[in-house]
Amino acid sequence: MTVIVVAVFAFAGTRSPDTRSTDDRVFALSGQLKCLQCVGESVAASQAPLATQFRTEIRKQVDTGATDQEVLDYFVRRYGDQVLLTPPSSGAGALVWVLPVLVVGIVAIALGLGFSRRRAAPAGPVPTTVPATGSVAVGVPAAASSAGGPATAGPVGARAPAPRWRGPAIAGVLLVFVVLTGLLVARGSGSRGSNTMTGGSGAGADLGQQLAACQPLAMRTPAKAIPCYDKILGREPDNVEALTYRGWANVRAGNASAGSADLERAVQLNPKSPAAGVFRAIGAANGGDFAKASGELALFYANRPSRMATQIVQSEGLERKIFFGLMSAPTRQCWQGAAGSGSSGAIDQAFLTALGACLDGVLAATPADRDARLSRALAHVGPDVKDPAAARALVNGLLADNPADADALALAVSLDIAAGNHDAAAAGLDRLDSLPRGPAAFLIGDPATLREALSAARKAEIPNPGGG
Fold first, then answer.
1. CATH number, domain at 291?
2. Within this chain, do residues 342 and 426 fall inside the same structural domain, yes or no?
3. How far is CA 238 from CA 213, 263, 283, in A?
4. CA-to-CA distance for 193 and 86, rounded, in angstroms?
5. Residue 144 located in a structural domain
6. What is the C-alpha to C-alpha distance for residues 303 and 274, in angstroms, rounded to an integer?
7. What is the dihedral of CA 364, 365, 366, 372, to 10 degrees?
């Protein structure tokens, strides 16, 4: 057994050159990562926008020569162990692999020792002596002599008793073998995923399979997804995922009140559930309640969502929809009219020039229009034509009217960074951190983005000692 263990570990430690094609490696690695935008699907099996981004990143890293483990480590560093479809092979995750092998091995050892003792038990006390003459004398004391005296024999047909150390020694060797085997399994399998939609067994795996079966319906045919989630919630009424996606299916199927109730319950059970918050915001926006949608989205960002969750918001275009939904009608018409002026709909100088000209007319008629003032300030800082003084005057007026205007404050921070007023920008960012996220943050920049810009601007001010 020692030879086998050493040989197995030696074999496991050797790696043959990876001769798979790039497509094969991308598919295999995608199957080991969980689609965090889905329920129970791997990145390989999902068509969600986020899964597509994952596959693009995997291919990029494979093309640069990264090993499979380096690619997996890249995603784990950014999204945590939850991005893996199977538990890691280090720390507590290794127990998932080692403990089953240990339990089976210990049971096998116990059974083996029990049977061994039964076979070694004597059949009955039948002492005999074998004299030198070959006759049999019963009851004669057993005494062996090299001078022809009687030689003793044990019970007829019985083996000599095994040394006492043999059983514990065998058990110890088997236990070591079992532990090493479990560690080998963890090493070989724990850090890798599978192409199955869910892992494990028993009730948990069954529930995961049901959730995975319902999820595509929620995205494609919501009316069919509702009874699918009804079955899950009949067993587990407080399952947050099922409540969240049934709520989303109800909203998409036109059952707004039922959907809102499900999403409300999901948020009560888990106030930081990113999917429930996003779906509630989408539902409110679809219903035309953009103020509620903006509040839901601000709460979503206040809970410090993961990067993955924020990418879901971006892929849905939710912030843009809320931004224009909250905007005054005259200002929105200016944005829509300027859309045809830019190159392929981009916010370039031509777009901003047309937007500014239209907004000048809106402000002449309604000087207090907050949305027109903010949009005009944005149009003053185009890539080619800039008037930061005019933009600053408009922003200062907005902040005088409402010091908690997060969008105006974010634009003021941006102007301070561009002007080199770094201390003022830092003070503005500190104030911005205490405010709910503004509807225009996707356009102006959120606090994290603005802090990165401020840090880069400060570094650019430091003289290069090398003169380069």
1. 1.25.40.10
2. yes
3. 19, 12, 21
4. 5
5. no
6. 8
7. -60
Strand partners, 33: 84
Q: Could you give phi then psi for residue 140, rounded to 5 degrees?
A: -75, 135
Kindly give, in sequence order, each residue whose CB lies less than 8 Å from that of residue 9, ignoring residues fewer than 6 positions away: 180, 184
159, part of any domain: no
Task: Name the H helices within 380-461.
Answer: 388-401, 406-419, 422-433, 441-444, 447-461
3-class secondary-structure state, position 192: coil
What does the angle CA 326 – CA 331 – CA 332 come to, to the nearest 5 degrees? Answer: 60
Class of residue 384 by CB neighbours under 10 A (exposed 0-12, middle 13-18, buried 19+): exposed
Structure tokens belonging to residue 261 = 């109730």
| 401 touches 435 (CB < 8 A) | no
Report if residue 303 sits inside a domain: yes
| Residue whose tokens read 């509620």 | 292
pTM, full prediction? 0.54
Q: How many other C-beta atoms are found inside a 10 Å radius of the C-beta of residue 56?
A: 11
Residues 303 and 417 in one domain: no
Asked whether residue 213 is domain-assigned, the answer is yes
Cβ–Cβ under 8 Å, residues 277 and 263: no
- Domain range holding 452? 335-461
Distances (CA, A) of 157 to 22, 116, 161, 354, 386: 68, 17, 12, 109, 107
Q: Residue 358: which of 343, 374, 376, 346 has the closest Cα?
A: 376
One pLDDT digit (tens) per residue for the chain, 468 residues = 554 544 444 444 444 455 566 777 887 888 888 887 666 677 876 767 777 788 888 988 888 888 988 999 888 888 777 788 775 555 444 555 555 656 666 766 666 666 566 555 554 554 444 444 444 434 434 444 344 444 444 444 445 555 666 666 666 666 666 666 655 555 544 444 333 333 334 444 467 677 777 877 776 788 888 999 999 999 899 998 889 889 988 888 888 889 889 998 988 898 877 778 888 888 888 889 999 999 888 888 887 776 666 776 777 788 999 999 999 999 999 999 998 776 666 788 899 999 999 999 999 999 999 999 999 999 999 888 899 999 999 999 999 999 999 999 999 999 999 999 999 999 999 999 999 999 999 899 989 899 999 999 998 877 655 554
Distance from C-alpha of 177 to C-alpha of 108, rounded to nearest angstrom: 12
In terms of Cα–Cα distance, which of 219, 195, 220, 192 is closest to 42? 195
**Distant-in-sequence, close-in-space partners of 299: CB < 8 Å, separation ≥ 6:** 277
Which one-letter amino acid corresponds to residue 436?
A: P
Count of structural domains, the chain: 2
How many Å apart are CA 96 and CA 102, to the nearest integer? 11
Is residue 244 within 8 A of residue 72, CB to CB? The reply is no
Q: Are residues 316 and 349 in the same domain?
A: no
